[in-house]
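in:
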């Protein structure tokens, strides 16, 4: 199954559609994005904009999500910046916090961490707030 993101005129993802692999496979048994786009435009209108997306992030860096933006320069789907202090990693096209997550491996299952932008702005050595999963 192939997945296509429908974009609005601002390159924002407004929908995700599935297309059978047979639809996007050419006579040489190669997948062609253009075949999927033609198929979808035939169903929903030639004025619609589509870009193929990948669950495995095999191309376009990230799987498209509703509200994400397709960046034509980077040929990538990028979510909105979650916090002012977070920076875009150009190689992954994902936003990253200015200080590392305190439990990156998730070894403390009874806790989770939230980002507190105000705390970070007040003291750039803090930002992660530890919370109990039982609360």
């Amino acid at each position: 199954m192939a997945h296509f993101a429908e974009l609005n005129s601002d390159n924002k993802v407004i929908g995700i559609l599935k297309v059978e692999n047979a639809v996007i496979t050419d006579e040489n048994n190669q997948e062609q994005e253009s075949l999927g786009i033609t198929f979808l435009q035939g169903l929903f209108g030639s004025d619609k904009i589509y870009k193929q997306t990948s669950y495995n992030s095999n191309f376009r860096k990230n799987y498209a999500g509703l509200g994400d933006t397709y960046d034509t320069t980077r040929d990538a789907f990028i979510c909105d910046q979650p916090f002012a202090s977070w920076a875009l990693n150009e190689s992954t096209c994902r936003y990253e916090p200015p200080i590392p997550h305190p439990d990156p491996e998730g070894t403390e299952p009874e806790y989770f961490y939230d980002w507190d932008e105000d705390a970070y702005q007040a003291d750039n050595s803090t930002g992660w707030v530890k919370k109990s999963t039982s609360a």
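note: The chain has three helices and nine strands.
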